[in-house]
Amino acid sequence: MSISVRRLLAVPEWRESVRVLAGDVDRVVQLVRPMAPDRSVEPGELVVVQSIPATDWRIDALLRRVADSGGAGVLLPADGLLETTRLLAERLGVPLLTATASPLDLLISARLLLAAPTLDRADLVLATHEALGPRIRPPEEVVATLRELLDASVALLDDSGALITGELPHADEVRVHEPVPQNAQLDEGVLLAHPVLLLDTARPALWLAAELPERSAARADAAPPALSVAAAAVQRWLLANRLELERDARSKTALLGDLLRLDDEPTADLRRRAADAGWSLGGWHIGIRIGIESTVDTVARAREVERVLHAEGVDAVVVEHGDGWTGWVTFEQEPTADRVRSLAAQLRAVARELQRTLDAHMGVGRPHPQADGLATTIAEATDAARLARTRPESGRFLHVDQLGMAQLLLEWTRTDTFEPAARALIAPLRGQPGDLVRTLAAYLDAESSIAETAAVLGVHRNTVAARIERIERLLAVDLHHRDERLALHLACRAVGRTEEA
């Protein structure tokens, strides 16, 4: 059996103690023997020098004999080598190696590799099994173990190729759309990748990848089985973690369902369950609804949603709920308008980031207090998300503030949330001098005619014009905008009907 000098140098014992000083390491090694002055050098022989000092003239003679016979190279002790000897080896093209370890130990490991090349692979697989063991280990520990065993960069990637843990200089070379083990040549090494499958899914949930540098690349034939063993360890963790996540998700989804069905004060048991989940029912809540396609695994992707929210500075509760996630942010006191706008901007950034890997749409509700307010704001957010799904021009994001409510009122006209939303929309006009609610209603009924509105109200047209300017300023709307005009018209009609009743 024959191997290259490069492959021999990738064996752990050689990699840790042997240095190349000269020559072509792609030369073929067919046998490894100690130096003997009374015999010739065989073709493909790597000669191991044990007792002769590196400064002895016989080393130069040995280099010439190796070159003349087609030998594979010379291995010397590390101390005292002359520069002239190195230059001679370089000129002759003979690999010249120096070792800090015992030549006898290196000789044994080289002969074992030559006699049974698969033994190195078996040793590596066994070492991986022993290091990881039967215990379920977190991915960080698996990656660290494999990095030490392979002397390589190792990382765990998600199904989009994003880094989860570890490091991998050429992570973008992993073909995550091809669910098979991979082996790719790099300019200075080899990239190996193994898929981590979850249950019966064809698409890998994760990828375990290793990038062997040039000094270890020749060992790429031995690494894939070890990578497979490590991938199985990640899979065990993934399955165990998935069971825990599913139990937690079912519990939280059931709790959320009970809260959304509330028609009275929460019971003591419900409050205890909420406290156990870390949810605050007091304070003011702003609901969030993230909708996705039904084919997405919401349990598996929940951590990603939480990570993106955290990255944007949003401290939100997130629950897997239907085709997507329902969440909310809680404030101890009623948030100011500026704080609400700031949160909406953060959530818009979250929506953009999620849309990089998910076909997602998002709706955001208004602030509402206490447990019943939580159900209200989530209902608003859900309606907003449903409408946002059909609005690519808004980035498929809709916040139910006074401006965004114009887009929602038509959606709400047949729901219980319509009247409260209508009242909230025109609330800033209440208590203002000039009967602004009636003026607005008359103005919209008159199809925005200042003259006709003045005639209906019995006031001067300049008075109507001044009131309309105040209304636009108080509501932060533009009555020239068709959607906002329609929304306000519907709101005035709804409020007017309930007050007449």
Question: Characteristics of this structure?
Answer:
elongated; five-stranded mixed beta sheet; 18 helices; alpha+beta; 18% strand; Beta-Lactamase; Udp-n-acetylmuramoylalanyl-d-glutamate--2,6- Diaminopimelate Ligase, Chain: A, domain 1; Alpha-Beta Plaits; 4 domains; 501 residues
Question: Topology, please?
Answer:
Layout: E1 3-4, H1 5-9, H2 12-17, E2 18-22, E3 28-29, E4 31-34, E5 45-48, H3 57-69, E6 73-77, H4 83-92, E7 96-99, H5 103-115, H6 117-132, H7 139-150, E8 153-158, E9 163-166, E10 182-186, E11 189-196, E12 206-213, H8 223-260, H9 268-276, E13 284-291, H10 298-311, E14 317-320, E15 324-331, H11 337-354, E16 361-369, H12 370-388, E17 397-399, H13 405-412, H14 418-426, H15 436-445, H16 450-457, H17 461-475, H18 482-500
Parallel strand pairs: 4-5, 5-6, 6-7, 16-17
Antiparallel strand pairs: 1-3, 2-7, 8-9, 8-12, 10-11, 11-12, 13-15, 13-16, 14-15
Helix pairs in contact: 3-4, 5-6, 6-7, 6-8, 7-8, 10-11, 13-14, 13-18, 14-18, 15-16, 15-17, 15-18, 16-17
